[in-house]
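for the writeup, i need someone to sanity check this before i put it in the appendix. the sequnce is what the collaborator sent (i think, or maybe the updated version? ugh). structure was predicted straight from it, no edits. if anything looks off just tell me and ill rerun, i have time this weekend
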Amino acid sequence: MSSKYGELDFSVPPSQRHGVALKGELVNKMKSMLPDFPNLLDDTLEELHVVIRRFFTETTNQSATVVGNHVFNDLDSFIDCLVSGDGRSAARACRSLFEHLVNYCEVMSSPKAAERYMEHKVVTADLLGNLTHGLHYLRGTPHKRERNRLAKLKRESLRPLREALSRFGTSFRRDWSSRNLYDRAAAHGYESHYDTYRLLSQVTHGSCGGVLGSHADISGRTVHRTGPSLELAVLSYLEGFTFFRAFAKEIGTRQNIETRKLIESIDNLLNYWPKYRQALTDLDAMIWPETPPPGPIAIMAIHPNGRARWYFWEPALNRMKPAYPPEGSEWMEERFRQHVREGNVEIPPNMEGRPITSAVSGVQVTPREGSSWFAASGILPPGVKPVAPWLICE
């Protein structure tokens, strides 16, 4: 654990420590609140193993196997995200599962669509050949090998790409399919889920509404949270397993692969969703701070030897770092010294060699390079909050 968390009181919920919570702390809390979840996942993964093995062994439609590769790998990521409460990543994986479901139905229904799907790999090769940015970081033999590899990839993709564009049109660069996702979804009976896809896309596209679960209005102020969006995890759980259940049903119908037991295990997970929802809703309430967290503060300190030093104070963690003085700090330091000399500062008896400090609002300081966090009590006497009346004195 980073030293900057050394002053946190982990005996109280995160809501009482400015919303600061550690990832491992949240995961452990989820485990205790959802004791049956791991067993339900294990049951699903056990049934999934057999289905995956049969799918890749028995599927003769090559495009369908590639789509299946996407599905099963994204499902794996999706489950990991649900276990950790990583709602943003779960939303992205959930969105992909819907797209894979529709694409599977499309390539299984249309030989032409299956052909276009496979031919689109030449677009991928062309794009990869253009990724020369990494050469800037390589030297010597690794640089030469990577440069030659990319050049070969680009060179070998040119002719197939021209032929594909000639056959399918210039729009083929943008998308493998000749029709948009909504039309494909509607053709296979999944248009009712398209609005869910659009909602999840807001996370991927960085839309304003995509910060669902990671910002809130608290006491009239907007508070942004970095870390897991539990609200998105709840939403994604229901939709993602619904999409995968539909995929399992499709391969059972279209390929005569036995998926009945897998679907039953997914139904058990879907029936467990109310408990998952309640647990993460309760946990979310425990994390959001009761009041808006304070921002970082610049601290100016006059040490017993008369030297002025600056510190970056993080009140939410009650930790500090030495900081570089702000530009033009000399007049502030001298004015504060004068304020102290004139007896305007009440010096508490428990200073014990600590400096006289002042918070400086409206000023930003940068922590010194390579500096370490230390307890604010090393600078601030217990029970004392630095103020800055000298800034407005005559």
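The first strand starts at residue 215 and ends at 218. The beta strands are 215-218, 221-224, 297-302, 308-314, 319-323, 356-360, 374-375.
thx in advance!!
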